[in-house]
Amino acid sequence: GTAGATLDAYLIITDQESGKRIVFKALGISFGPTGLQGPSTLALGSNVEIRLNNAAMIILNANGTFVSWDCEGFASMAIDADIEFCRNFIVPLNPSTLEPKPEPERYRLNVVTTIPSWLEFYVTVNAEPFAVAGYETIKWSLTNMLVDFSSTETPAFTPLSGYASPFYDGQAMSGQWKGFYVQNISVKFPTSFSNSGTTITASANDVMIDDCGFSGAVGVQTEILCIDDGN
């Protein structure tokens, strides 16, 4: 018998937005007349951070991010990633107490999915409560958030009235839009907002975080100030 042969395989992907080069590799793969006799996946050597915009970046986790390949080359890519928001925009809250988490913790969303090409996907993920930086006493809680990184497809939704973007024609969002969207969200205001000293809970809809910033509409259901107490 013979020992056969081995090869080292590499795939280098250049992120078009940041210019960063991401290297996937597999070393010492056995192959023979019938093809590969070892793993058909290329793995990251370590976690990779990629800036998405001025508010967020994506962290590719090496343990769950890999490229599947065959004789034709690239087949698909598995993503296990954390989307991390700059603390200057979003402050993470403790889910139990709704108090801000201490520095240097950042607000994160975890994404696990399989994609056909580099960072082309949209997915709905669970999200923990958060606050907008500078307004930490106002607590935002939600269950699902749309994360859209696709440059060709965007799920149908209607943004807040008055929203302006190159990717919105007044009727529908363009497939080129990228960002984060939540249809419904609950908000808790501090007791100082209430005439009775009780915590006010409100609801918000069409909350979006994208290159245009943070937008959404808030409706308060609890009485803030009795009309007889007004001036």
Comma- or semicolon-separated keywords:
nine-stranded antiparallel β-sheet; 231 residues; 49% strand; elongated; mainly beta; six-stranded antiparallel β-sheet; single chain
Q: In brief, what are we looking at here?
A:
This protein is an all-beta fold and 231 residues long.
Explain what this protein looks like in three dimensions:
This protein is mainly β. Helix content is 0%, strand content 49%. It contains no helices and 17 strands. It has strands at 5-14, 21-32, 35-36, 41-44, 48-51, 56-60, 66-70, 73-85, 90-92, 107-115, 122-126, 130-132, 139-141, 144-148, 179-189, 200-210, 213-220. Strands 1, 2, 3, 4, 5, 6, 7, 8 and 10 form a nine-stranded antiparallel beta sheet that branches. A hairpin with a 6-residue loop joins strand 1 and strand 2 (21-32).
Strand content: over 45%
- Counting DSSP H or I runs of 4 or more residues, the number of helices is 0
Unreliable stretches, pLDDT < 50, 5 or more residues?
none
User: How helical, in percent, are the residues?
Assistant: under 10%
What's the gyration radius in Å? Answer: 23 Å
Strand segment tally: 17
Q: Please give the largest β-sheet.
A: 9 strands, antiparallel
* CA-based shape: elongated
Report the oligomer.
single chain
Summed over residues and divided by their number, the pLDDT gives a mean of: 85
Please identify the structural class as seen in this structure: mainly beta
Order of helices and strands: EEEEEEEEEEEEEEEEE
Distance between the termini: 96 Å
Explain the layout of strands and helices:
Elements: E1 5-14, E2 21-32, E3 35-36, E4 41-44, E5 48-51, E6 56-60, E7 66-70, E8 73-85, E9 90-92, E10 107-115, E11 122-126, E12 130-132, E13 139-141, E14 144-148, E15 179-189, E16 200-210, E17 213-220
Antiparallel strand pairs: 1-2, 2-3, 2-4, 4-7, 5-6, 6-8, 7-8, 8-10, 9-12, 11-14, 13-15, 14-15, 15-16, 16-17
